[in-house]
Amino acid sequence: MQRVGKKGPGAQLPPARWVVGVLICGATALAVAQEAGGAGSGAGTGEVGSGNGVADGIEANPYSISISESLQHDSNVLHAPAGRVVSDIVSNTDLRLGLDQWLGRQRLDVSADLQYQRFRDSQAFNNLSPILRAQLDWSTAERWQGQLGLLHQQSLYRNFLGETEDGSSELLKNLERIDEGFFRANLGLVTAWTVEGALTAFQRRYSADASASSELDRRAVELGVRYRPHPDFSFRTLLRYTDGRYPHGEADGEADRYDRRDLEASLQLRPSGASSLVLRLAHSNEHHHQGELQRAQLWSGSLSWKWQPTGKLSFDTQVLRDSDTGNLPLSEGQASRDVQLGTEFSIASRWQASEKLQFSLNYQQSLRDLQRGQGTPDALSAKDRQRRITLKVDWRPSRGLALGCQATPERRQTSGSAELTTPYDATVVGCYGRFVWQ
After folding, report:
1. CA atoms of 355 and 112, how far apart (whole Å)
2. Angstrom distance (rounded) from CA 145 to CA 226
3. How far is residue 129 CA from its own chain's centroid?
4. Which residue, among 44, 73, 2, 86, has the nearest Cα to 357 in the 3D structure?
5. What is the rounded distance in angstroms from the CA atom of residue 125 to the CA atom of residue 113?
6. Which 8-state DSSP code applies to residue 80?
7. In the chain, which end has fewer C-beta atoms inside a 10 angstrom radius, N or C?
8. What is the pLDDT along the chain (438 residues), one digit of tens a residue?
9. Is 119 helix (H, G, I), strand (E, B) or coil?
10. How many Cα atoms within 13 Å fall on the side-chain side of residue 265?
C-alpha cells in the first residue's frame, strides 16, 4: 500500500514539460481566435479532434504511431471530501502504436497505448497506465462471421479510500486493472433472421487492500436471435447466463459467488438519415450462494440516441441502468460491489466550427443506490448523485497534428453511510498536443 505525502524538494516537473504545456495552451488559444473569425466561410463537415488524430477512411498503410503530451491542473486528485483534498499539476506522456490490417476475409486491429502519468507534488501517485487491445473480425466463405477480442488496461482509480491505518491525513494510491476477453459468432440465414452467440470473460483487480471487496471475476454466455426485415430496423432477443464471483466480497474475506440469468430484448431503429436509436431492456434473476443477499430480481437496460440535425452539429444521448453484477459498464469511478442499482445519463454535443476546429460540450449524471450487509444488524445504506460537465476545444492544423484544451468540473452529493460513499468537488483544466504518423 502506497501513501501520498506532502511536497518534497525533488517533486518539481522538468522545465521542458512546463514549456510544452505553455506552448500547447498558447497555440490552442491563438488557433481558436483565428478559426472562430473564419468559421462562417468554407467550413467542412468532417469530424476533428476525435481522439486519435487520424483521418477517416481506410488507409493503405496499416501501421500508426501517436505521441502526445498533456499538462493539467487537478483540484482533487482522488475525489476526496473536504479536508482531505490533494490538488496537483499532472503531466501525461502517451505513446500509441497501432496495426489495422486486412488478412484475406479477416481484419486484425491491434493497439498498444502506453501512458505515463506524473504528479508534480504527490509523486507517489505516479503511474504507468497501459491499454492493450486486440480484435479479429472474422468471416467464412459461408454465412458465419464474428469477432474475437482481448483487452488489458490499468489506471489510477480516482476514488477516496479513507485515512491510513495510523489515522493520518495522507491518502492511498490505488490502481485499477481490467482484463476482458470475448468471442462472438453470427450465423446469417437466407432470410432476415440471424442467430447470434457470445462468450465473455471479465476480471477487475485493485492494488489497494481497501478495495479488495470490489474485485470481480465474471464469465457469461449468451444466445439470441436477430430479425432485420429492413436496413433501418432490427429486433433482437437473447438469453444470457452469468457466473460471477467477488473473491473477497464477504466481511470475513470469503468469496461471494453468484449466478445471474437475463432475458434481454433490444431494438435498433433509424427513423431518418439524421438520427438512430438503440433500446435495450432486460429482466434479471440473481442468486448469491453466500452472504446476506440470496436472491434478487432487477430490471436493467440502456437507451442510445444519436442525432445530427446539421452537418456541423451532432448530439449523442445515453441512459444506462444496471447493478455492478451486470454486463452494462458503469462509468469510471462508479464500480463497487455495494452498488445495488446505478442509473447514468449523458449527453454529448459537438459543433464543427470549421474544417480544423471543433467544440464539444458534455454533461453526465449518475445516481447510485448502495447497500451492504442487508438483513444484518450492521447493515449500511447510502445514495449518491454525481454530475460532470466537460467543455473541450480541438484544433487540427494538419492531418497528423492535433492540439486541444478542456475544463471538467464535477461534484458528488451523498446521503447515508460515509463508509459506502463520500462527497467531493473537483475541477480538472488542461491542454494537450498530439502527433500522429500513419
Report:
1. 29
2. 14
3. 14
4. 44
5. 19
6. P
7. N
8. 444 444 443 344 444 444 445 444 554 555 445 555 554 444 333 333 333 433 444 446 899 999 999 999 999 998 889 888 889 999 999 999 999 999 999 999 999 999 999 999 999 999 999 999 999 999 998 889 999 999 999 999 887 765 544 444 456 789 999 999 999 999 987 789 999 999 999 999 999 888 888 899 999 999 999 999 999 999 999 999 999 999 987 656 678 899 999 999 999 999 998 999 999 999 999 998 875 556 788 899 999 999 999 999 999 999 999 888 777 666 666 678 888 889 999 999 999 999 999 999 999 999 999 988 777 778 899 999 999 999 999 999 998 999 999 999 999 999 999 888 899 999 999 999 999 997
9. strand
10. 3
User: Looking at this protein, which amino acid is placed at residue 12?
Assistant: Q
State the Cα–Cα distance between residues 240 and 331, nearest whole angstrom.
22
In 311-379, where do the E strands start and end?
Answer: 313-322, 339-352, 357-372
**The residue to which cell 498533456 is assigned:** 70
Q: Which residues pair with 247 in a beta bridge?
A: none
Amino acid in position 208 = A
Query: Residue 318 in contact with residue 302, Cβ under 8 Å?
Result: yes
Task: Read off the C-alpha cell for 188.
Answer: 446469417
Residue 325's identity, in one-letter code, is: T
Report d(CA 406, CA 388) in Å as an integer: 13
Structure-block grid coordinates of residue 59: 488507409
- When computed from its CA atoms, the radius of gyration of the chain, rounded to whole angstroms, is 23
Report the C-alpha gap between 314 and 277 in whole angstroms: 14
- Hey, how many other C-beta atoms are within 10 angstroms of the C-beta on 366? 20
